[in-house]
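Worked Example 4.2. Consider the chain below.
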Amino acid sequence: MSADFQDFKYKELTDQAIEKIYMAYNKLGYGFLEKVSANAML
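Applying the procedure from the previous section yields the following structure tokens:
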């Protein structure tokens, strides 16, 4: 088993999802409920 975290399945898709999450967080700011943040990513 490798300890390299860059070697996993669906890396590109995961990177895109994380990028979208941070974009929503940066636009909304902190302090919102999870549902508000989830709706912002739709």
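The helical segments are 11-28, 34-40. The two ends are 36 Å apart (CA to CA). Compare this with Example 4.1 before moving on.
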